[in-house]
Amino acid sequence: xxxxxxxxxLEKRYHKNIHRHRGVDWKSIxxxxxxxxxxxxxxxxxxxGEPDLLIIDDKFYYVDMAKESPNGxxxxxxxxxxxxxxxxxxxxxSVLEMATEMGIExxxxxxxxxxxxxxxxxxxxxxxxxxxxxxxxxGGALFACNRYQKVFVYHNGADSYYKDRAFRAxxxxx
Length: 174
Known about the structure:
By secondary structure, this protein is of the alpha+beta class. It has seven helices and eight strands, in the order H-H-H-E-E-H-H-E-H-E-H-E-E-E-E. Strand 5 (140-147) and strand 6 (150-157) form a beta hairpin.
């Protein structure tokens, strides 16, 4: 996919989901989307994130808005240390490694809850979320999902991975 095609997809998604960004003019957003940001958003799109514009605390972000966790980012341990220390069947990549490679940020717990206030996502899947260093040093990592119209945050060993767990991310654009 090329940048021009991505801009068309983003514009269509913008108009289709206006409830995510009421009061913001598409042309004003387009001005903020330089090639660097568009390159990162393209990687989000290519891995199934369906990124769209969200306004959170008066800041503009492109956030993964796929109904379920992005297909192209599933079955990964939380970070490199967990991946390298996994004794059986280590995955090829980890959440934090892939996010760094893509130049995107993993949602933290606060942003995940704000995302769920806008739209119910991860109804059948789950998403790793940013885990603080203290908790991570104890071997764990956090993930979240939406079940029974409630958002849950859970813990797992950072070396675990599941076919229905990926990660959601964002790119700040202003």
